[in-house]
Design brief:
Helix content is 47%, strand content 6%. By secondary structure, it is mostly helical. The radius of gyration is 23 Å and the shape is globular. Bound molecules: fe (ii) ion (2 copies).
């Protein structure tokens, strides 16, 4: 499935054959570009950046590399090829043909799901817009820009669905996606984590590790959707999400490698001494990890949710890897364990599985995060450092759901308000931590040079050398 780049809006959905839709999207396009100029990466519009662009959605064509000025990036509409005779794999419509149009009775729920997903895409670009000014290397700057243009394309993917399938209110929602602003008091982004600041590169790497991983799980659940255009578009978005998580995974690994190197050289694990050497001590990295893990875990929503049950039963949103799960895919009688607080401790209790689907997706996410963090521990181990990074308990620092009212340590113990106050400086980044990390953020853009607090990557992008001039400032 090749993408038609001769058109104003590159696409593989035969946009030229639908003049009304084409006109509507061509009207939205300049609004998107003016949003990009205002809220995209600061001061970057003239740069030539070594970026990948999709020219088709198959293995060979989805990543074509070349120098592009970001406002000229070919944002467009790409769907994975349709699976012939695809059947719905779960819920009340299990076994029926997947929908090519939106059923009237599910219209508002589907629109809400698409808008909520769509809103996160420009939000993350806004959160990251100042980071280019303090990049630790040209290689990292390029990766930041790659993530940003692809989040822009993810917005296009959701806006296409809104325009194509939801008529006038879809067009209004598409406009509103360019109107909200991350962190804005009057018109914020929809979900909490997307209104947090991403003020430094440690936060950025943690965000791409955890919050883009939330993206992976949400998108995976949507690839199961009975609404086939949503399933196909999210499937293609997932291929791009993999790179975003790579940026986080490798970014943090390079930071801890540098710290470990300094710990061995200086024979110390004293945070103050390590900070004096200009590297980030591991307890500070753990606190950032705790923060990003906990705000991301909240994105999965309340432990028990009747909306989640409705979305599943009506076929709008499935489970992670639905088809690999051995059960009836209807879940009317099934149960799933959730957490409650009883006599001062966290205890598991069985809840109706349909209502606990957020919790289940959250658990899938946590297991995936733990596996990712283990790879960092292997890197520490290799360098002879005993410290272990740990994913905090999923009940830690919650702001959403019944656990929001309870204070729980990263190890999953219920603590009193006084107990929380006594330890919170060990568990979450302090103003002092943030100030220290901020103090390290200076701009390094000479090809092949890296800031002192991070190791170079082991390889460059697309077979290019690490010291390649990935960004030409002109
Ligand atoms: Fe995205
Ligand atoms: Fe992403």
């Amino acid at each position: 499935m090749n993408i038609d780049y001769d058109q104003k809006i590159p696409n593989n959905v035969e946009l030229a054959g639908d003049k009304v839709l084409q006109r509507a999207l061509e009207h939205w396009q300049p609004e998107f570009l003016s949003w990009w100029r205002e809220m995209g990466p600061e001061g970057s519009n003239g740069f030539d950046v070594y970026l990948r662009t999709a020219t088709s959605v198959d293995q060979a064509g989805w990543a074509q590399f070349g120098y592009v000025k970001m406002p000229d990036y070919r944002w467009g509409i790409f769907l994975n090829p349709a699976t012939p005779d695809r059947k719905i794999s779960f819920g009340a419509h299990r076994g029926e043909p997947a929908w090519q149009e939106v059923p009237g009775e599910y219209r508002s729920n589907l629109r809400r799901i698409i808008v909520t997903q769509g809103d996160t895409e420009p939000a993350s670009v806004e959160q990251q817009r100042h980071l280019g000014l303090t990049c630790p290397s040209m290689y990292d700057l390029r990766n930041l820009f790659q993530v940003n243009v692809e989040e822009g394309r993810h917005l296009w993917a959701m806006v296409y669905l809104l325009h194509r399938y939801f008529g006038r209110d879809g067009r209004e929602e598409a406009e509103a996606l360019l109107g909200r602003r991350s962190g804005d008091a009057d018109n914020p982004r929809i979900l909490g984590a997307f209104n947090e600041r991403t003020p430094d590169w440690l936060s950025f790497f943690m965000f791409t590790f955890f919050t883009d991983r939330d993206g992976k799980f949400q998108l995976s659940a949507l690839t199961e959707s009975a609404f086939d255009p949503l399933a196909r578009t999210t499937r293609f978005m997932l291929t791009e999400e993999g790179h975003h998580m790579f940026v986080g995974r490798n970014g943090i690994r390079r930071i801890i490698e540098r710290t470990a190197e300094m710990m061995v050289r200086e024979r110390t694990d004293d945070p103050a001494r390590l900070r004096a050497c200009g590297v980030i001590d591991l307890p500070t990295i753990q606190r950032y990890l705790n923060f990003h893990s906990s705000v991301t875990v909240d994105l999965f929503g309340s432990d028990l949710s009747s909306n989640a049950a409705t979305f599943y039963t009506t076929g709008l949103k499935g489970r992670f890897r639905e088809e690999r799960i051995a059960d009836d895919h209807v879940l009317k009688e099934a149960t799933y364990p959730i957490l409650d607080v009883s006599t001062g401790e966290l205890v598991g209790r069985d809840a109706p599985a349909l209502n606990a689907l957020n919790e289940r997706l959250r658990d899938d996410f946590v297991a995936d995060s733990i596996a990712g963090v283990e790879a960092w521990n292997v890197a520490l181990d290799k360098r002879g450092v005993e410290f272990r990074l740990v994913v905090p308990h999923k009940a830690f620092n919650r702001q959403i759901g019944p656990l929001a009212g309870v204070r729980i340590s990263p190890q999953g113990r219920v603590v009193t308000a006084a107990g929380w106050e006594a330890h919170v400086r060990e568990w979450l980044p302090t103003a002092e931590d943030r100030g220290f990390v901020q103090s390290l953020m200076g701009r390094v853009v000479e090809p092949g040079k890296f800031a002192n607090w991070i190791s170079p990557p082991s390889a460059g992008i697309n077979g290019q050398p690490v010291e390649c001039e990935y960004v030409r400032f002109n």
